[in-house]
Structure formats: structure tokens, C-alpha cells
Amino acid sequence: MPPEVLANLAAVPPYAAPLHLAVGMFDGVHRGHQAVIGRAVAAARASGGTAGVLTFWPHPSVVLRPASPTRVMQDPAAKAEVLRQLGVSLILTEPFSAGIAEVEAGDFVTWLRARLPGLAGLYVGENFRFGRGRRGEVALLARTGQEAGIAVVIAPPVLWDGAPVSSTRIRALLAAGEMGAVAGLLGRPYASCGPVVPGKRLGRTLGFPTLNLVWSPPAQPRFGVYAVRVRGASGLAQPAVANYGLRPTVEQATDPRLEVHVLGDCPWGEGKVLRVEWERFLRPEQAFPDLAALRRQILQDCAAAREFLGLPPA
User: Fold this and answer.
1) Which of 70, 179, 209, 247 has the greatest number of beta carbons closer than 10 A?
2) What is the pLDDT of residues 241-275, one digit of tens each?
3) What is the assigned CATH class of domain 189-308?
4) Peptide bond into 117 cis (omega under 30)
């Protein structure tokens, strides 16, 4: 059954069953986040309770330091889809505000309890910070939770290649185009979802028709060409090659675009919502002297993508 997605804490009905709540931004829902959320899901199943996630939107940095906000990897809808796969029953996306930022760390559990009377357990990572000025640490959370009769479970960091998994680390790898490492930290391929919209049909003119997807994350992958897999509503994957960037050969764009050329018969068209799984960075985006040079490079890109994805030569 899909999780119940609520816009704020005020929308939560009283729960007769105990509520086990993982709390955090969970941007990317990477392996470290999964370890926290998995503990909440396991506890809810053991007690016959509800497994929930409390996250915030926008990112607190938008309110606390608007001149330099954190570039997030996911919007609430994309995050909710990953949380669904983890077995979460309730997703709460609380609008982050100056009022929330002013809640004193020592009052945080009381603030939560007043809004969630069925709260039985809180699940956080070891580096979780909360309360005014982010002064609250997990030791304070554990103490105030115990005083309120709420279990507090603190998950240790998850290591990958000898270093802690973190959203900051993943953003840096995305910017470098290190998609294999990104997938390792996420525990799944990096993916983007968006509807197909009309394009200029230049790819069709060159013999490589493309699907143009609306997709613009604040934390952007490196501009360039990638071997990818594309999935529609049925879940069936099609191998493809994708370009993400500003298309310097054909226009002076300022907003990056994701263009995907399916390596074989393409069953999708305009209006379809597709999921693109990014497998490998092939080369940086570059400007070519003319369309003939661009076409020759696209042929090489398709060959490189086919080789990586295990397809026979065209």
C-alpha cells in the first residue's frame, strides 16, 4: 500500500497505534538515511505501529541563509517515491519556517509530542542537529526523549569506501560525473524523472531523435553525455544515451536540458513521464564547429553507450 503523504504535522490524525518517526532532511535518501529509516520501519512492524518520516521543505538553509542555500538533489515528490520503496507508511513534509527555526533544542521533543500525541519513537542519524541555532545534539535528544517517555534511536554513520556516506559527498560526486560512485552511496542508480516535452527536432534531422525531459534539479550533475537506461510507466528499461547541458553547438542556452536518445525502438512520446537512470559519464559537453562534426561525435557516443550497457554494435 502506498504511504500517506501529508503536507504538514497539523494534518496528522491521532494515531491509536504507536508512531515510529525518522526525522531529517534525507536529501537523496542515501544508504545512511536508509539505515535510520530502516530502524523506524523495523520497530513499527515489531510493535504493530506506524513507520513515518518527518522531513522539511524547503531546505532549512533557504530560511537560515538565503544567500547561499544548499543545492538539494530531490524535491518532495522524488523523495516520497524512494521512501515508499523503503516501507514507510506516513510521510510528513513540514514547511520549514522562521518559527520552527526558533524552537529551542530543549523544547523540540515537547514541540513534536504536542503535534503527534501517538509518538512512540524518534530515529535519527548520529550527526542530527536540531533546535535554535542547530545547538541540539543527539545526547540532548536522547535525554529529553527519555523524560517524555519516547524512545530515541541513534543510527551510526554508514561507511562507503572508508568514508561516511553523506549528501554533501554525493553532490560533489554528481558535479564530477562520478555516477558509479554516486550509485554506490545511494544504494541505487541516480535517477531523474520528468515529462517529455516538444523540442526543436534537431536530433531527428541528424538521425538521432531525442526525448526532451523537463527536469532541473538545484544540485546538477556534470554537463555532458551519459550512458543511461530509461523507464516508462510499465517499468520496462530501454538503453539510451543522454546529453545534459546547454547545447553550445546549436544555441546559446542558459538553462540546462536533458535530452535522451533511445538505442533502439522508442515506445514513448510527448507527454509521457519517464525515469532516466544515469549509469556512466562518457564525455564532457563541448561545442562543435558544425552539425556534421556533431553528428560524427553522436555516433561515437552511441557506440560508447552501447558498449558500456552490454549491447552489440549497431
Assistant:
1) 179
2) 999 999 888 777 788 999 999 999 999 999 999 99
3) mainly beta
4) no
CA distances in angstroms from 247 to 205, 207, 244, 256, listed in the order given? 15, 17, 8, 8
Per-residue model confidence as pLDDT tens digits over 161-202 = 999 999 999 999 999 999 999 999 999 999 999 999 998 777
- The domain ranges of the chain are 4-163, 189-308
| CATH architecture of residue range(s) 4-163 | 3-Layer(aba) Sandwich (3.40)
Closest of 195, 193, 207 to residue 301, by C-alpha: 207
What is the model's pTM?
0.94
Predicted local distance difference test score (pLDDT) of residue 16: 62
DSSP 11: G
Cβ contact 48:62 at 8 Å: no
Burial of 123 (C-beta count, 10 Å sphere; 0-12/13-18/19+): buried
